[in-house]
Each structure stands twice: as C-alpha cells, then as structure tokens.
C-alpha cells in the first residue's frame, strides 16, 4: 500500500547497471520507497564480469528487499539486444506489463578511460569500446523498455551521468560518453512527452563508491580518513544520496515539469529535502565554487 513512507509501493523499476556504486544506491533507495526493483548487470553469483569485482546483482537485490521493497536479480548484458529483449519480456510477464521507472546506470568504463593522453594518442579500439559500453547499452535498454511505459502513458526514465553541464570532463572518450548520456535524456524526453513519460539526466557529486573507497584505502566506517589524500573527498556523497534523488523524482507527481533536463543531487536535495545516509546534505557545486573555481574555472551552467 502506498504511504508517505512508501510512496513507490506498487511501482516497478528496472535499474540497469545496479551491481554497485550509483546503480546499487538507486536500486536500494527505490526499494526503501516501496518499489519492486529489477536489478541487472553482468556480475552475479554465477560469475564476475570483466571488471572482476566482488559485488553482485544478487547482493543488491537482497539489499533492496531488506530496505523494504522487493529486489529481483536478473543477469543481463545490456550490450546484447537479445538479452535485453528477454529481460523486458520477463518484466512484462511478471508485472502485468508494468514498468514505472527505468534507470540507465550502465557504465563499467573506468578501466577503459585514458586520463593521460589526447584523442590522437589514445587507443581507438579501447575508446570505441567505452562508448559502446557506456552509451549503446543505454540506447538498447531504452529501445526495449520504453514500450511498456508508453503503453501505460506514465513513467520516468533516469539517465545517470557525470556532470550536468557542457563543461569538458578531462579526457575525450569519457567526456563524449557522459555528454552523450545527457543528450539521450533530452532526446527521449522529446519523444516521450506526448505519452506522459518523463526523461531526465542525473549526476551525483563526488560519489563515494566501493571502488573509490578502495582507492583511498578506507571503508564507509572511516571514509573521512581519505580526505588526507584528497581534501575534496571530505565533500563526497554515498550512493544512497543519488538513490534518494531518484526516489524523490519518481514520487513527484509533477516530474513532467523536469523532463528533458540535466539534474544534480546538489540541486534536488534543496527541493525535496532528502539527506545522505548520515543525515548530511552534501553540495558539491557549493564546494566547487568555494574551493576549486578559482583554479579550475566554473563548474558550468546547468543544461
């Protein structure tokens, strides 16, 4: 039953790329709001993806259920149209054709990103593989999932990206991928608007993912120690913060007013009032303006 504490009860969500990081945070918080969440990715108890990390979709699904929703793990390689088609058919069969929330959070591009070289010195195959992994997967997933939303004339698509501006992101293929994902939201919004379905792009601030915690040699329990290596880390946010932003958007009856926009956790917390897991409200844009803008320039104007 839908209540103030469980505003998404009865809703069905697909979080593509829900194995870890932002995708996991989104899936769990949608569950906490009462949703049934299909969690997909390539890392499962049956085997790891080429990233060779320990997190699995089954773990995320268990966390969704523990948070108060229903988590359903479905191993899917979103670069394979046949697998995505089968996934959507499964959701349609099990949920009477219902899909209310689609989150395109597939990434997996960290090991493919070259931060050291300009385009003309980068490995072309690696760069194109990054684009296939980070952009084509989103296109494929939307292609098969959107008909369920269009048929019901309601729903929300969230394209997870990095940054909500046109500002260059430091290296060619990474910048192209993250900028393209914003454009995916804009294009989907234009085509979906007549059908009552909203589409937005959404960025976290400095996301404190499992991989980043490992990078700094800390855990969530002592994460602040990582600020000794990078002071900006003190202003990071957990994946739950991103997840709560998505849950707030999905529960907003006026979300269509935001369709086609590139949004950020640091703007949405002010509107919706959600907090991070520890009760704080990180604002990376404010931190940037106060501490980094003089050296690196403005963060950029929101798109």
Describe the 3D structure.
- The protein is α/β, with parallel strands linked by helices.
- It is 42% helix and 12% strand.
- The chain contains ten helices and seven strands.
- Strands 3-2-1-4-5-6-7 form a seven-stranded parallel β-sheet, with helices on both faces.
- 48% of the residues are buried.
- The mean pLDDT is 96.
| Rg over C-alpha atoms, rounded to the nearest angstrom | 18 Å
Describe the strand arrangement of the main beta sheet, using strand numbers.
3-2-1-4-5-6-7
| Molecular shape | globular
Q: Whole-Å distance between the termini?
A: 37 Å
Q: Give the helices and strands as they follow along the chain.
A: EHEHEHEHEHEHHEHHH
Are there runs of 5+ residues with pLDDT below 50, and where? Answer: none
Tally of separate helices? 10
Structural class: alpha/beta
- Proportion of residues in β-strands: 5-15%
Q: Main sheet? A: 7 strands, parallel
Q: State the helical fraction.
A: 40-55%
How much is the average pLDDT? 96
Beta strands, count = 7
Task: Describe the structure in brief.
The chain contains ten helices and seven strands.
Record keyword descriptors for this entry.
303 residues; alpha/beta
Secondary-structure topology with pairs:
Layout: E1 12-16, H1 21-32, E2 36-41, H2 57-67, E3 70-75, H3 81-94, E4 101-104, H4 124-152, E5 155-160, H5 172-192, E6 197-203, H6 210-216, H7 239-251, E7 262-264, H8 265-272, H9 284-291, H10 293-296
Parallel strand pairs: 1-2, 1-4, 2-3, 4-5, 5-6, 6-7
Helix pairs in contact: 1-2, 1-7, 3-4, 4-5, 7-8
């Amino acid at each position: 039953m839908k209540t103030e504490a469980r505003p998404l009860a009865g809703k069905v969500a697909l979080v593509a790329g829900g194995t870890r990081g932002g995708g996991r945070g989104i899936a769990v918080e949608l569950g906490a709001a009462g949703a049934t969440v299909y969690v997909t990715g390539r890392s499962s108890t049956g085997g790891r993806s080429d990233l060779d990390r320990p997190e699995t979709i089954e773990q995320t699904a268990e966390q969704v259920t523990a948070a108060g929703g229903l988590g359903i793990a479905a191993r899917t390689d979103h670069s394979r149209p046949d697998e995505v088609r089968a996934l959507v058919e499964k959701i349609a069969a099990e949920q009477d054709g219902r899909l209310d929330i689609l989150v395109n959070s597939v990434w997996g591009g960290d090991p493919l990103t070259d931060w050291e070289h300009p385009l003309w010195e980068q490995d072309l195959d690696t760069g194109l593989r990054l684009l296939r992994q980070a952009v084509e997967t989103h296109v494929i997933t939307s292609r098969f999932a959107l008909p369920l939303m269009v048929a019901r004339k309601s729903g929300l698509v969230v394209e997870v990206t990095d940054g909500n501006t046109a500002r260059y992101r430091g290296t060619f293929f990474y910048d192209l991928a993250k900028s393209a994902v914003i454009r995916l939201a804009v294009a989907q919004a234009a085509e979906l608007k007549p059908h009552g379905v909203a589409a937005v792009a959404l960025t976290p601030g400095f996301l404190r993912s499992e991989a980043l915690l490992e990078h700094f040699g800390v855990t969530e329990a002592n994460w602040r120690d990582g600020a000794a290596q990078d002071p900006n880390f003190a202003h990071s946010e957990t994946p739950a913060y991103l997840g709560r932003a998505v849950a707030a958007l999905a529960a907003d009856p006026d979300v269509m007013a935001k369709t086609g926009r590139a949004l950020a956790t640091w703007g949405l917390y002010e509107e919706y009032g959600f907090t991070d897991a520890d009760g704080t409200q990180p604002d990376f844009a404010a931190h940037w303006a106060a501490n980094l803008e003089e050296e690196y320039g403005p963060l950029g104007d929101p798109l």
